[in-house]
Amino acid sequence: MRLLLVEDDEHVAAALVAVLGRHGFTPVRVRTGEEALAALRGGGFGVVLLDLGLPDVDGFEVCGRIRRLTSTPVIMVTARADVRSRIHGLNLGADDYVVKPYDTGELLARIHAVSRRTAGEEPAGSEEEAPEVLVVGPVTVELATRRVEVDGERVVLTRKEFDLLALLAQRPGVVFRREQIISDVWRTSWEGTGRTLEVHIASLRAKLRRPELVETVRGVGYRLALPGL
Length: 229
Hints:
Layout (H helix, E strand, L loop, with lengths): L1 E5 L3 H13 L3 E5 L2 H9 L5 E4 L8 H11 L4 E5 L4 H9 L4 E4 L4 H14 L15 E4 L2 E4 L4 E4 L2 E3 L3 H12 L5 E2 H9 L7 H15 L5 E4 L3 E4 L5
Parallel strand pairs: 1-2, 1-3, 3-4, 4-5
Antiparallel strand pairs: 6-7, 7-8, 8-9, 10-12, 11-12
Helix pairs in contact: 2-3, 4-8, 6-7, 6-8
Protein name: Sensory transduction protein RegX3
Organism: Streptomyces mimosae
Keywords: DNA-binding, Phosphoprotein, Transcription, Transcription regulation, Two-component regulatory system
């Protein structure tokens, strides 16, 4: 897999390029946001590793521009560890968020997890069995167009937020275990994805403007609340 590494620190980039090469990736390293966008216009990358502290353009802005340009998975790799930055990055369309310093095994696992997602963007479950439109109380989810409305108003979600909502909406009222959600939406069983799930749940609740719709079942997982229950 060709992997685009956007990193301006020479030492960090050199070490990461060596590790990625040993694990079967073909890394292409660029130093700036503009170089990254130019490289992506040529296509052919499986994953983008995006540092946020770039010399020319803030990494958040670069992520937004990448998402308008291509659907290539983006993993933000940064020293910004606060939850607000995580949520902002995911809202811009990042597929994952890794905080420096990180374990290389963790980073490799996350790369494999997001790359498996590129095999298909459809929500988990049988496409033939699932209806085209899911309606749960005030929430309407159109699977084919990936459109979501709450009380008749359009809600714009990232890809992972949509897949998460679509999974819960297919069986409203049923509790989905955290492990099951991670397996179905992120296509991985790796436990480290749990924090990413929590961030996506928080972001989804905020965007739906009805946080009570996505219920936490302590010690188990999450469910989409049925009206009146």
